[in-house]
């Protein structure tokens, strides 16, 4: 790699390969996940409040999810989330509603 032209060529090829891999694996498909609320936690910090739901489902197992602070889901309620599928990375859950 003493030749700068070779280094730049390999670097550009790696960037193109990465962009191609990300483009081919990106998907606009989503799945809807329904889960049961185990606990509802409102936390206070210096920069404001945050609300977390601990939910359990067959797809997710047990997971803590950040939701808007205005959401009031009692324990035992069913919550619906949206999640993108077919990605290289785990996609975040998007809160839809609480029943």
Written overview of the protein:
The protein is of the alpha+beta class and 99 residues long. It has a domain at 30-98: Beta Barrel (OB fold (Dihydrolipoamide Acetyltransferase, E2P)). Helices cover 22% and strands 45% of the residues. The protein has one helix spanning 4-25; strands at 30-45, 48-57, 61-67, 78-84, 94-98. It has a five-stranded antiparallel beta sheet, with no helix packed on it. A hairpin with a 3-residue loop joins strand 2 (48-57) and strand 3 (61-67). The longest helix has 22 residues, at 4-25. The protein is elongated, with a radius of gyration of 20 Å. The termini are far apart. The mean pLDDT is 87.
What's the architecture of the domain at 30-98, going by CATH? Beta Barrel
The percent range for helix content is 10-25%
The geometry reads as elongated
Q: How many whole angstroms does the radius of gyration measure?
A: 20 Å
The CATH C-level class name of the domain at 30-98: Mainly Beta
CATH topology of the domain at 30-98: OB fold (Dihydrolipoamide Acetyltransferase, E2P)
Strand content: over 45%
Structural class label? alpha+beta
Task: Give the distance, in angstroms, between the N- and C-terminal Cα atoms.
Answer: 60 Å
Low-confidence parts lasting 5 or more residues at pLDDT below 50? none
Tally of DSSP β-strands: 5
Strand order of the largest sheet: 3-2-1-4-5
Biggest pleated-sheet summary: 5 strands, antiparallel
